[in-house]
Amino acid sequence: MTQVIWIIVAALVTFTVGYLGYSRYLSQFVELDEDAETPAHKYEDGQEYVPSKKPVLLGHHFSSIAGGAPIVGPITAGAVWGWVPALLWIAIGNPLMGAVHDFISLSGSLRHEGKSIGYIIGEYVGGRGKQMLLWFAFLTIILVVAVFALVVGIVFNAYPEVSTASTVYIALALLFGLYLYQFDGPFIPGTVVFVAGVFAAVRVGIEYPIALFEPTAERTAELSVIVLLGGAGQWVPGAAALGANTAAWIPVVMVYAAIASALPVWMLLQPRDYLSSFLLYAGVGGAVIAIIVGTLLGTATEPLVIDSSLGAFNGFWGVEGVFLPLFPLLFITIACGTISGFHSLVSSGTTAKQLNKETDARLIGYGGMLGEGLLASVALSALAVWGFADPAGGIGAALPNFASGGGIILTSLGIPETVGAVFMALVLVSFLLTSTDTAVRLGRYMMEEIVGLPAGQTDTGLNPMQEDTLLDKIGSIARGRYTNPLVQTIPAYLLVVSGQWVTLWALFGGANQLLAALALLTGTVWIANWDATKQLATTGVPMALMVTITVLGLAWLVFYENLYSNLYLHFTGALAEPLAAEALASSAVQAILGLVLITLALSLVRIGYQNIREVRSGTDRAAMNPSDD
């Protein structure tokens, strides 16, 4: 049988070559300047623009982009199509496409006052293009919030120990923020104490697992779970499709994300992401080392080989009973492990506002994405060790396998399987939580630019009556620090309660990947306007590939999965079991949303292409200085 170590080796080889060679070329290509003033220094306000130490910012950026998607995507794709196609897309696509995307998004934002990719493209193609891209990004954010909250609920149900551990971890992050920024505590001693506390939270969770309703996962029958709410919980929206405990955790996660997104970055976002980075380093690094040690020394409790229930290649249409085409859906199912448009929002939304030096962009932008690719490889390895024997149980049933397989892998280092599994589940959830509330914060940034708000200013949204016109009142609520999260979380919740896991994840992946294509388009437009002598293939080729893949993928989801398989067959009576009302509503919303995203994207590609052609042909204005905004 094939050993799991070959998955890790393949990723390490291509990632090392990419960082040592390609990232150095890219740094020279965009002319990073260590002495240039970054937006964090120019607009320092203690709220959003905060110059940050490289390790702290790397922790924030790494945690925010890594999230749960590089775990969920490879697990889903590996279970559907087999581990070989999933590995090839991660190992090859990441250094050539995903890391380029992240680096260019961060570098472009640095040269445009830390503004978003929507602002950047608007500088070159006009306000209409800017608004279109910002709306596209905002709609994608809603999907991010929906799917990440859903996955947290699934994992909390399977591992109630992590519900407790996550609560302790968030409390520690708040205390760490106060310790660093209000009491000016020493950095290194504080790091040691609070990181130790985060790892201790795993033990607290094992001793005192909590759930909102009785968990339904088979493994929880042996646990003494503290159930906070009585009754069966069937009144909870989505309980019929997801189970009461899973469905009940989803709004809790969204409320947390809404509150966290409104807090100053120093209070929770920076300290939490910094502490999360140690979980990520320990989870990814520990798993990689454990796979190497366990393979060479045979110290794991089980052989570290790819389980026979997980196929190397399950065919073009995937594992039996799923019926999903490998092309183009593989390339949108694995998003964050290879290339992800959400990263462009992080890079140009929060990271660019905190970068201390331009030259830090190479490690944080390009290197951070490679780290995420390694996490995706670990996720695929964990699935490979545990296997996936019951596709009929739904792809969502494969998600807890990351923790289960990770627990087996960590036994190579002498860690008990039960402890290792809970730790790996905490790794998954902690990054889901960081990505979710970062997404809501980024959604507010998007809306601030859509509605209009000067740089460095914020709006609480609590006093709309002070505005003059009705549109101004609506705009204040839409962009408000405390009111904008409702604009995002309410539609996200309506999408997720249907329980349609596979189509919702694929729709998120399609929107996310199409956003990546638009971010690459933005970078290409910026470079074309900056210097007429610079080549455009580095960003232009990945952009063209992603536009083709994602438009086809979204078209499949809109016309086949939702309009035909769900709505048409339901209303013609062809389905054996008619869909519930919430599933029908979700399918209709997904179809409309998919069509809107396709239309916006193709329109933006057309506008961007026209700008590039005009600039390069000399029929438009002169190329701009890279720092022009």
Explained architecture:
Strands 1-2 form a two-stranded parallel sheet. The protein has one domain (4-617): Up-down Bundle (Amino acid/polyamine transporter I), CATH 1.20.1740.10. It has helices at 5-29, 39-42, 54-66, 69-81, 83-110, 117-125, 127-158, 160-181, 187-207, 239-242, 244-262, 265-297, 326-333, 341-349, 360-386, 401-410, 417-451, 470-479, 484-496, 501-530, 537-571, 581-617; strands spanning 210-211, 226-227. With 629 residues, it is mainly alpha-helical. The protein is 69% helix and 1% strand.
Determine Rg (CA atoms, Å). Answer: 23 Å
Q: How many DSSP helices?
A: 22
Structural class: mainly alpha
CATH architectural label: Up-down Bundle
Annotation, overall tally of beta strands: 2
Total number of distinct structural domains: 1
Order of helices and strands: HHHHHHHHHEEHHHHHHHHHHHHH
Q: End-to-end span in angstroms?
A: 57 Å
The major pleated sheet works out as: 2 strands, parallel
Low-confidence region ranges: 622-629
CATH topology: Amino acid/polyamine transporter I
Please name the fourth-level CATH homologous superfamily.
Amino acid/polyamine transporter I
Specify the helix fraction band. 55-70%
Shape: globular
Beta-strand residue percentage? under 5%
* CATH class categorisation: Mainly Alpha
Mean pLDDT: 87
Taking strands numbered 1, 2, ... along the chain, how are they ordered across the largest sheet?
Answer: 1-2
